[in-house]
Specification:
The protein is mostly helical. It has one domain. It is built from 4 helices and no strands. The chain is elongated, with a radius of gyration of 20 Å. The two termini are 32 Å apart. InterPro entries: bHLH_dom (IPR011598), HLH_DNA-bd_sf (IPR036638), PRE (IPR044293).
């Protein structure tokens, strides 16, 4: 898809839409069925936003947990090793 000014074919768009749809969880795919590319993009954006909220919430919980934990404890070591992976 490189090459300035090159038009994307309908086949390439269909392939990209199909790949994008396959990345959505089954529950979200059911909501859109065989929807338009526009509806699929909106649902994908919504899903990404929900993932960001979930990550933020988990990060806040983890920060709170780490703040209450002795930094030399085995649990803190486990959490640090998980964060490095």
């Amino acid at each position: 898809m490189s090459g300035r000014g090159r038009r994307i074919t309908d086949e390439e768009i269909n392939e990209l839409v199909s790949k994008l749809q396959s990345l959505l969880p089954e529950s979200r795919r059911r909501n859109i069925g065989r929807a338009s590319a526009s509806k699929l993009l909106k649902e994908t954006c919504s899903y990404i936003k929900s993932l960001h909220r979930e990550v933020d919430g988990l990060s806040d919980r983890l920060s709170g947990l780490m703040a209450t934990m002795d930094s030399d404890s085995p649990q803190a070591d486990i959490i640090r090793s998980l964060l490095r992976s």
